[in-house]
Design a protein that fits this description.
This protein is α+β, with helices and mostly antiparallel strands. Strand 3 and strand 4 form a beta hairpin. The chain has four helices and five strands.
Length: 149
């Protein structure tokens, strides 16, 4: 939708209404919805994008209705492009810290991500409380420092 009569002639993208339960399956900050274990497709999709891109990017922040996803975030190896939600390799690591390969990952031949023994221990005892389903942006991590007086 273009509004040529407005300053800057803004463009807008409008999505069709999606009927059904809207669910956030993972976030850009490492959250993986383990409560909906019957929905393996969203986690596999994120994992697949990492493998298919040659480890250059991963699509996360998967949310939507059923297998109709909307408003994703992309983390890239360089941390460039795709806005402030692109947390780069840190965002990729956050996803794989929480992701557990499922039967679809295995059937597609996706490689398991190497985790440290401590990370594996955390996963086996459940998801840590510190992982939020909220989308993070690089600006969330700005630390303000005062000059010494």
């Amino acid at each position: 939708l273009e509004l040529p009569e407005r300053p800057g002639k803004p463009l807008y993208h409008i999505e069709h209404y999606i009927d059904g339960e809207y669910v956030k399956y993972n976030s850009n900050s490492g959250f993986v919805d383990v409560g909906r274990c019957c929905r393996q497709t969203p986690q596999t999709f994120s994992h697949f994008t990492f493998e298919r891109s040659g480890h250059e990017l991963v699509v996360v922040d998967v949310q939507g209705v059923g297998d109709l996803y909307t408003d994703p975030q992309i983390h890239t190896a360089t941390g460039d492009e795709y806005g402030d939600g692109n947390l780069g390799t840190r965002g990729m690591a956050l996803f794989f810290h929480s992701h557990k390969c499922n039967s679809i990952c295995k059937s597609l031949g996706l490689a398991e991500f190497d985790l440290s023994s401590n990370e594996k221990k955390v996963l086996s005892t459940g998801q840590p409380d510190s992982i939020s389903s909220e989308t993070r942006v690089r600006l969330d991590e700005v630390v303000l420092c005062e000059s010494p007086s």
